[in-house]
Amino acid sequence: MKTKHTLKYTLLLCAGLWISLTGCDDFLDINDDPNNPTEGAVSLLLPSAQVDIGGALGNSMGGLSAIPQAYMHQMFERGTTQGDYGVNGSDFEVITPWNILYTRALMDIEQIISQGTDLEAWSYVGVAQIMKAYSLSLMVDMYGDVPFSEAFQGTALVSPFYDDDEVVYNELFLLLDQGIENLNKVSSITMGTDDLFYGGNLGQWQRFAKTVKLKMYTQIRLVRDVSTEVNALLAENDLISSSADDFQFVFGTSTGPENRNSAYVQEYSPGAARYYINPFFYETLAGLNTFGHRGYGEDLGLVDPRIPYYFYNQIDTIRASTAPENPCSYCYGYNDPGTGNFVVQVPELAETGMVSIYMFSFNIDPNEGFAQGTSQSVAGLYPLGGAFDTGPGSAAANFNGSPTVPQRFLTYYSLKYLEAELYLTGVATGNDEQAFRDALQASFSKVNEIATGANATPPIPTIPLTDGDEEVNDIEDYIDAVMADYVTQDEQGKLEHIMTQKWIASYGFACDTYTDYRRTGFPVLHDGNTDNLSVTTQVRDFPFALPWVDANLEINANAPPQKLIATDNARIFWDPN
């Protein structure tokens, strides 16, 4: 039998290489004889499943959040149609999370439930049921109908039925209740450090499960009266209560085996960053509107103090001597390769080193074809553990950051945004203004929590600083300005504030904000056909779901035909718009 020391490093290796669809799972195959489960089986299966969930739902190239973050105008890949909503069932980002979850994580979870029930290891059964419900709720939110009732049977059933998305959601509510019930039974095995999310703290698992229920009820509020259930959960007051309860996957520092944040490893290989910062997202935070879109930040006259935590500029201030290595459309300027002259491109960016490309520019903008590996702005500290932007500008490189930054999934700040939405829309009884203010404060606190733990990176100021004769506080000034506008708005204007700020705070995990947008229409996104740019054209409509995996449809006799993702037939059941 493998020692605990060997198992630890095997799991870390799997964390670093989770995108690979073979290898680690075989190494941890301790279920050769499912009729004779041992006490150690569930404690080995649990971290294996959690490593896969931590990667498969995240924001690296093979994670479930990769495409939604492009859909939601935060980050996207250069040289692909994903920058114009073009996604196919054969795309890596569609296939990988589906396969990781269905062939590994959820199969391990089924084994935990089965073996844990036989062993009366109820804490493991409850945690497994909660992880299963959460993972599948996101799969429904992204894909719609998914295999459920006939899934997870291995080779015993190779063509599982794709269950109706609403039916699956109803079953997941029941599964969460079962999981909570099992957490409160006396378990024959005590869970501990083998639980990579909460370290065996069953109270935190229970609060997480109930918060998942609240989130799911919020998502279906437009198609079902959920007031009774929502008010009961809020009155019970057993939800995520602080950032200490955040559901997130924590990474390490090892490179051999690799167990750092997988998105960090992807983006901070020298000159090899895959994601470009969407200019629309940057301008929302910077209070700019340089290309004719509707500017949330510009309307408020605000510059978001989170910018240096969100984005890292490899160039400090762009001039002829510090120009990007190739011509660029979204930058202050570049050196013309024909004349050698410095060309000013976007004057409003004069004091920044922001270098990116426009969404909707694929095969249109001649500068879209130029790689900017050593000059493009990259994702920073907050979303994936990248570098904090201190200003001098230098190339993003391996070890230039804090790769232990966790992959966030469901957090305390997101709960507060849920409460604000529920109070505002009358689904629950409460003060939406106070909940929204609390959500804003929790959002900044999460950035500061990450900053504090990242190699002495300074947190956003939380004490008054002297600016001439005026006392200023970056966080409080920003929150006060947002709230001053919030109270003047009608319900739709207030809802836009809530959803836009939730979108900003959720940078690094886009699945829920993609769901929010489909439900509410907020935040307002860049329209590639109504801007004032000659280098953008939006040829595809906004997609309502991810396509199913083509290969699964081809081999599964019970699979539906592939959907057209931008048509009403692709809408998830909770989306009546």
* Overall shape: globular
Question: What is the CATH topology assignment of one domain?
Answer: Serine Threonine Protein Phosphatase 5, Tetratricopeptide repeat
Radius of gyration: 24 Å
In round numbers, the mean pLDDT is 89
Number of strands: 12
Gap between N and C termini, in Å? 55 Å
- The helix content is 40-55%
The strand line-up of the biggest sheet is 1-5
Structure classification: mainly alpha
Total DSSP helices: 20
Q: Could you give a short account of the major beta sheet?
A: 2 strands, antiparallel
CATH architecture of one domain: Alpha Horseshoe
**Tell me, what is the CATH class of one domain?**
Mainly Alpha
The fraction of residues in strands falls at 5-15%
